[in-house]
Amino acid sequence: MDCNKTGALIARLRKDKKITQKQLADKLNISDRTVSKWERGGGIPDVSLLSDIADIFDITIEALLNGEISSNDFIGGNMKKSKYYVCKTCGNIVISTGDVSVLCCDKKMTEEIPQKAMDSDKLCVEEVENDWYITSNHSMIKDHYISFVAFATGSKLQIVKQYPEWDLQVRLQKREHGTLLWYCTKHGLFYQYL
After folding, report:
1. Is the pTM of this model over 0.85?
2. Whole-number Cα distances in Å, 57 to 24, 35, 63
3. Distance (Å, whole) CA 126 – CA 134
4. Are 93 and 112 in contact (CB under 8 A)?
5. In what order do the strands lie in the sheet containing 131-135?
6. Which of 1, 41, 120, 162 is least surrounded by Cβ atoms within 10 Å, i.e. has the fewest?
7. How far apart are CA 48 and CA 59, in angstroms?
8. Chain centroid to CA 182: how far?
9. Three-state SS sequence of the chain
């Protein structure tokens, strides 16, 4: 850890928030001289304060320790290239159009890599009244079910949450060609083209 970089980051973030050293110190129950010392590179915050400082500035502790906030390259808005993250503990779903670091239930989530569905795994898709009616005979029990179905085109993403012990029956507005994705709680993320 570089004390000068961390101090400079704290000073920049504090000024961006338009708060004084004294106001930051008061929020942390420390002296403003301590904040001044950090900002000059003469020391670093105590480990017990890192979480509070990160929360005040809406950054990660890692960014605080590194003394810099890295930004992602803009990937663009092609929704077919979205990244899917599913929490193995609570089932929370996170979707991003670029690189992210995602935590849920105090664990880092990893990107689900979609696998092409074999013919036996594909969802049944029928056209009904200019919509796609999607069904499956996939198991829908508590420990093994499809938790969501999504349809992605270049500019739009539609997602429908599914629940165990419900039959999988999803109706989506028919759009241009795109990618149909679904997440099986045991086998991961699958896709097929429509």
Report:
1. no
2. 10, 14, 11
3. 7
4. no
5. 124-128, 131-135, 169-173
6. 120
7. 16
8. 17
9. CCHHHHHHHHHHHHHHCCCCHHHHHHHHCCCHHHHHHHHCCCCCCCHHHHHHHHHHHCCCHHHHHHCCCCCCCCCCCCHHHCEEEECCCCCCEEEECCCCCEEECCEEECEECCEECCCCCCCEEEEECCEEEEECCCCCECCECEEEEEEECCCCEEEEECCCCCCCEEEEECCCCCEEEEEECCCEEEEEEC
CA-to-CA separations, 80 to 87, 133, 151, 160, in angstroms, rounded = 21, 20, 9, 16
Q: Which two tokens stand for residue 117?
A: 């569905």
Q: Phi-psi category of 106—alpha, beta or left, where left has phi over 0 and alpha has psi -120 to 50?
A: left
Written as six digits, the tokens of 37 are 């010392």
Strand partners, 86: 93
pLDDT digits 0-9 by tens, 91-115: 999 999 888 888 899 899 999 999 9
Amino acid at the residue 66: N
